[in-house]
Amino acid sequence: MQIKINNKSYQADEGEPILSVCKRNGIRIPTLCAHPDLLPSEGACRMCLVETNQSKSLVSSCTQKVCKGMEIKTETADVKRARKVNLELLWADHAGKCASCKRNGRCELQNLAEEYKVDEFKFVPRRKELRSENELDLLKDNWSHVAIDEKNPCIARDSEYCIECRRCIRICRDMQTVEAYGMNYRSSKTNVGTPFEIPLDCIFCGQCSAVCPTAAITEKDDIEKFEKALKDPQKMVVVQTAPSVRFTIGEEFGEAPGTFWEGKLVAALKEIGCDKVFDTVLGADLTIIEEAHELIRRIKNRGPFPMFTSCCPSWVLYVEKYYPEFIPNLSTCKSPQQMLAPLVKTYWTQKEKINPEQIVSVSIMPCTSKKYEAQREEINASGHQDVDIVLTIRELARLLRKKKIDPKKLKERKFDPALGISTGAGMLFAQSGGVMEAALRTAVEKITGAELGKVEFEMVRGESGARCAEIDVDGMKLRVAVVHEIRNAKNLLEEIEKGKSDYHFVEVMACPNGCIGGGGQPVPTGPAVRKARIAGVMARDKGMPIRKSHENPVLKKIYKEFLGHPGSEKAEELLHTKYTNRKK
Questions:
Q1: Chosen domain end from 204, 219, 234
Q2: Rounded CA gap, 449 and 441, in Å?
Q3: Which of 271, 383, 482, 576 is most open to solvent, judged by the fewest CB atoms within 10 Å of its CB?
């Protein structure tokens, strides 16, 4: 059908929201509650108001559907006035807090306030304006409902910054099915929070922090710990960086999503003062070698199937909390972060004759739940805390800006070679389907004893939330599945319980499109941003000289000198773990 927007004709689908039509045609409408990962929108923020010839009052464009003959105005004086008043009301709770805020300069509310020139605090009450003690008591009572929650290692909440856009409620409910957030209280005291304002107890995926438009929900900040370690002359700071970090950190400094910044990343970490910078991709290659060995062993022993990947700590925690009956199906392999870290404090320190107690092991991750994973009691095997500090990409970017370090101006540097050589297979861990494809490249060669003619397993690639494939391996039909987002994982678990799905091997990632859409990645994010990031990952894999994990020369040396062979007693001790039933 045809509709008019600002006196121009456009094609629209029946029942399509006005906001969707405008976005598709390059007409910008400001929003604070709408998000590309959260469809349909709820119209909570009232920033996307427009005029139509179908209504006497302004309507929210994210909820109002188009109809035949509709005429829409997006920038009239009344529309602009209403948007500005809404902004002033929201801004009243944020007055004067920007300078000390984690999201300063990257806050959606702040950006709109600047755009609409909200420079007066019209709705901020002054004590002298309060006419009675009752009004002052009412103001104090409203402040009494501010909730600050930092009782977990991953996510920080401060409801003082909340604008009640409800994005966190929706992403936790609709994408992750955990429902950690909801609306509390009534009337003017209504706010977003956890049930009864108990400390957050979820799977710590951080998607709430990725979609929050302000600083009401952020990653737990460990920058101070990192800086303290850097200043300690008795400590050696050893950093590892996850596969996806090199494709996304550039966004924090103006680069396009998917820009390959490995050399700049290493240079920036060296500039900060890190003593050694190793590559978590080597840990990913190690994970694949051990995981392929475990899969082959399960095939020989006829189960238990399916074998689920265990790289994603949010997924592991989800199984432990909600489906503990599937714990035997989780691979015992640690994640790449937790495989590389004990090698640093055992193999590498022994070779370099360094006391492991001197080492501060730091990882730069796209993920908030890696902070939780590093503290798991079951995970530390080196005799020390394997990973001491975890920073998200956003934290690292804040630290670089604080220290006035612009990676763009730095000369590229390489990872320290002792634990810094990687493959294209390990690089694929950055995205959904990457662990599966990397594992197949190794497992198929090990099962058949023949070299792959083509290393790409395109049947497990794609952007859909759940996909499956059947692969002929030496006469055996290997049934595999790839799932991202917990809602899709939950559906799969229910199908398996009912006997409707029969797989040998399943990859699960909690975040949309895997680590490339992790809760600690740069914001804003959405399907288009993640697609560009994935394109960067795929291009890098294709251009790598080594594309199979078991051909990594550093790992061949480590197995020969230290681990012995995949699944050895030493490998089991350092590289494998166990899980705990946490169901309440």
A1: 219
A2: 12
A3: 383
Q: Cβ distance 402 to 234 under 8 Å? A: no
**Residue 128 clears pLDDT 60, i.e. is over it:** no
* Cα 94 to Cα 156: distance, rounded to the nearest angstrom: 17
Q: Which of these, 303, 309, 292, lies nearest to 483 by C-alpha position? A: 309
Range of the domain at 170: 145-219
Give the count of domains, the chain. 3
- CATH of residue 15: 3.10.20.740
| 360, amino acid identity | V
DSSP 73-130: ESS-HHHHHHHHHHHHHHHHTTTT-GGG-TTTTS-HHHHHHHHTT--S-TTS--GGG-
Using one digit for the tens of pLDDT, what is the confidence trace for 292-344?
999 999 999 999 999 999 999 999 999 999 999 999 999 999 999 999 999 99
Q: Which tokens belong to 256?
A: 């396009």
How many residues are given for the chain? 584
If asked whether residues 29 and 162 sit together in one domain, one would say no
Closest to 245 in 3D by CA, of 228, 264, 226: 264
Q: Would you name the residues annotated as active-site residues? A: 291, 294, 311, 331, 370, 373, 378, 515
Digit-coded pLDDT (tens) for 133-155: 555 454 445 545 567 788 899 99
Place of tokens 């902070």: 371
* Burial bucket for residue 226 (CB in 10 Å: 0-12, 13-18, 19+): buried
- Whether the bond between 524 and the residue before it is cis, its omega within 30 degrees of 0, is yes
| Strand stretches in 159-235, DSSP E | 182-184, 191-193, 217-219
CA nearest neighbour of 262 among 283, 275, 281, 276: 281
> In sequence order, what are the beta bridge partners of 483?
466, 508
Q: How far apart are CA 248 and CA 520, in angstroms?
A: 11
The amino acid sitting at 515 is C
pLDDT, averaged across the chain: 93
For residue 189, what is the domain's CATH number?
3.30.70.20
b/e map of 294-324 (b: 16 or more CB within 10 Å)? bbbebbeeeeebbbbbbbbbbbbbbbbbbbe
